[in-house]
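Please, structure for the following, as tokens.
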Amino acid sequence: MNKTAALIFTEKGIYCPNGNFYIDPWRPVDRALITHAHADHARPGHNRYLSTDIAAPVLKHRLGAISLETISYGETRQIGSAIVSFHPAGHVPGSAQICVEVNGEIWVVSGDYKTVADNLSTAFEPVKCHSFVTECTFGLPAFRWMAQEHVFGEINQWWAKNAASGAVSILGAYGLGKAQRLLSGLDLSIGKVLTHSAVEGTNRVMRQQGIALPETEQIMPETDGKGQSGALILAPPSALGSVWSRRFGETSSAFASGWMGLRGVRRRRAADRGFVISDHADWSGLNAAIKATRAENIYVTHGYTDVFSKWLKSEGYNAQIVPTEFTGETVDIEDME
């Protein structure tokens, strides 16, 4: 890698020599610019953090008493001799792509992103650049998402059917982003919504910062599990099939993830149903986002990196794989997102 580049890839993470900062570093550093608050991108131990003002409350909720500065979408800030700006990534509320300009050379680190608006996160905005660092969590042609409204319709039909029989519906979803997105699409006329503490903690923080979410009731140790007939419970994936879930008597469980599009995954998650919905871009979204940047150089990180980088090369891009410790939306790692 050319050491005069605006960004270089190191053992600690993506580094800007001209600004002496890292983007989503996975080892402790002095200054970390954070794309969003998921645990694989926002780690403890850095001396100073910079995130969007929207992401900051959840970031503090997850990491505790950190030294945190904030920046608004589209605002420019000079750090050393680098000019930095944060732009909507559409992944979860407050998520950002980070643009770094040094001597006219523009790089964009996308973090995690999706290109379809979800009515909760600020919608993705492409940023023109020379070099684009992109995830490819779902970088296979097989991954093509159905319209969000269609998936919400399936979820509400499943819940209504369970409620009619007196069963409790348990919907597994990551506690930051996915759970709130699902909550915003539920038909609350069907019944009440209960939440696991891992979900409700994030709900509470978002409500306090002014993000509109339907009301929910947190499940407490004293909650009467057998008295929740017809309710829907939003819980982290680890709760499905657990001792905790068995307290509610007759239940039907489901898991909401892009991975539900693959055969066998639902069985591994001990779920009755799988709903295909993701906070990452699908195959079409990845390609559209990359095209919109007009970037010549594409750096492919976590996901189907081999397949996706070969595809990009066939399309005329200067594409290469960059090893990182980001994980994207996972099947087996609990509560990473």
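The first strand starts at residue 8 and ends at 9. The chain is about 20% helix and 25% strand.
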